[in-house]
Amino acid sequence: MSAIVSARAGIVVTGTEVLTGRVADANGPYLADRLLELGVELSHITLCGDRPADIEAQLRFLADQDLDLVITSGGLGPTADDMTVEVVARFCGRDLVLDPGLEAKIGDIVTGLMARFPGVDAEAVLAANRKQALIPAGAVILDPVGTAPGVVVEGHPTVVVLPGPPRELQPMWQAAVATDALQAAIAGRTPYRQETVRMFGLPESGLAETLRDAEGSVAGFDRLEITTCLRRGELEIVTRFEPQDAAAYTALLDALRARHDREIFSTDGALIDDQIADLLRGRRIATAESCTAGLLAARLTERPGSSAYVAGGVVAYANAAKTDLLGVDATLIDQHGAVSEPVAEAMAHGALTRFDADTAIAITGVAGPGGGTEGKPVGTVCFSVALTDGSDPGATVTRTTTLPGNRSDVRERSTTVAMHLLRRALTGHR
Amino acid sequence: MSAIVSARAGIVVTGTEVLTGRVADANGPYLADRLLELGVELSHITLCGDRPADIEAQLRFLADQDLDLVITSGGLGPTADDMTVEVVARFCGRDLVLDPGLEAKIGDIVTGLMARFPGVDAEAVLAANRKQALIPAGAVILDPVGTAPGVVVEGHPTVVVLPGPPRELQPMWQAAVATDALQAAIAGRTPYRQETVRMFGLPESGLAETLRDAEGSVAGFDRLEITTCLRRGELEIVTRFEPQDAAAYTALLDALRARHDREIFSTDGALIDDQIADLLRGRRIATAESCTAGLLAARLTERPGSSAYVAGGVVAYANAAKTDLLGVDATLIDQHGAVSEPVAEAMAHGALTRFDADTAIAITGVAGPGGGTEGKPVGTVCFSVALTDGSDPGATVTRTTTLPGNRSDVRERSTTVAMHLLRRALTGHR
């Protein structure tokens, strides 16, 4: 690893509901994105419950990692189990002091809120909220967005204390970034660039081989931080580098293209769903689904505005539905089976006709766990794309593939394969 | 807190894509639930990237917290940045050794996979996967679900190494729990019972009030650990207690039933999806979906064997599809709008007829963000269930509701409302 000098950060997320997974943590991912934009390297995220000893242990761990910045989220409320500020003060060796100006500010907010809840004991609420005006001596105060203020405590690491609710944390983080204390902590940051390449149809080990070879052939390869990830049947390659190493990234991209030109479908961050939405503009698509039973139609309509190009679809689960709703010839099913290329083709043509569409895609397969045969094991899925273009009577692309995994994986992956087959048909790469 | 001596655990989630938030971590929440069921207390979850030094620092931190069990997820793939097994071996003071039996097993899996990728260099792939057959000396091997094996390394803490993809991690965790090594590590656990009540149609605040009152009226209430969670539009009340406190739980359940009998739909862990699958046995259902565009059909067919009762469905996204495919009278759409109870009813009857079904459900709504009007704001969704029973000409239940959230929330929640409306229609509770 090269000696890149960059500011480094860690995040402590507190709260039993987040630790136990009852509430998904949105603050870690939000702060991770913001740190990336700032060129600050995020090394660790830790989650714990509301126990002071656990919070303090995590702060100590992060300090031992020689980080410049530690951000905490949660534990700033008025109740007894909200202890983060007290723990941070002790950790930073500061006394906890009452800030009278802050107490008045919180009092105003709380009085305003209480007007909406007439039954509540005002004195008790104000006393509970006084606790929130206690801050580590000398800390920079971040004004409340809800009722809880945050603080920035300078040191090594500098600690930023933020509230748990994302709608309070996010604006308060922006305020924290503007403070001199935080800017001083991250002064050693490195501006990074990040680029993403997406591929389809290549196994992860095939990419690993290419990257091993690139290590020898790409000048500056060791200054690129490359992570690869298999997601929804696609490979995602994210590369992070300093701006002066852009040439090394270009060389890496060339090396990837030289071997996997057909598999690379995106180098600009666009998802297959973005590309399909663009390609369908001005067209009219219909779906005919058996094993995926509506998942592809649902995926095509995830985006607002998709009604401009999605006419609809048929979920033809039973064979009778394939013949009655899509006009598939029953003898075709008898001869070839419901999971077969001729039936997929007939389904696509049926969808084209019934919905008066110019683009149709059909999926029929064995999602499992039952229904597999020797010739057509579980995971066998047939796809067909049919297009009409003005006078063109209807070009068809049909494929059969065997997908791994359980019932849910086969169904989910089938929609991804369908999206890519659609892309190839619409861009003329068959 | 009483002095319960319980086994304690920590989780290390590795992977740059998870640390940076590009992929949401599903393994921490999954393992948190499983540990809860086992009566093992989860103290810390830590996330880091693929750097060996960071993984090792987190293992060291968790070991310092005197935990009995540490579970890692991720970093078991064939690429060079997958280092978890190597790091764990070093951390546990064990050599890394090649297991020939495991190597043969992985070889078989990989050879099978490669049949689908004819262009790939088989030798290189097998070499990359050989790395996955290296395990800490003396560790218990967990057979691969994908291509990567896991391991259990006994010690204090005992370390369980699992793969990152949830569909691989989940079955492998079940295998890990069955090992003597893991059972020995968590021998100090407290046996708990856990019961779940599910409700639909009650606001969270209504439940909070009932629970406050139960605090006074239910003997032993303070020995019940109750957590409530709003999920997919349903309320889930999970209660954890030691076996000797079963009477207190029974009293709590009585208190809930006394006030919310209509809203409680499950007290035995069954999901609405399980109940609908049971209710549809012997019937034949068809769907007619507009705003949900296939999500309900996909949900009804998630279970193996659903082809016994799901005939199919129409995704009638465009108005023309509603008239052409479902026979909805165009003047009905003109008069009442596509999002209206008369159109929902006509869609349901159309689905009954076209699929020759005895049960049909239709959904038409405004998913947003556009398309809302003053009378029918975003989130307005109309549902209709139509049933025929032998001579019965077709009983219909139709409802309109306004659902909160963004486009994706409205679509997802609509499927839940539809499932509950279907349940009420099929059980005769209208």
Automatic annotation (TrEMBL), chains A, B:
Residues 10-184 form the MoaB/Mog domain. It comes from Mycolicibacterium psychrotolerans. PANTHER family: NICOTINAMIDE-NUCLEOTIDE AMIDOHYDROLASE PNCC (PTHR13939), NMN AMIDOHYDROLASE-LIKE PROTEIN YFAY (PTHR13939:SF0). Pfam families: CinA, MoCF_biosynth. InterPro entries: CinA, CinA-like_C, CinA_C, Competence-induced_CinA, MoaB/Mog-like_dom_sf, MoaB/Mog_dom. Belongs to the CinA family. SMART domains: MoCF_biosynth (SM00852). It comes from the Bacteria. This is CinA-like protein.
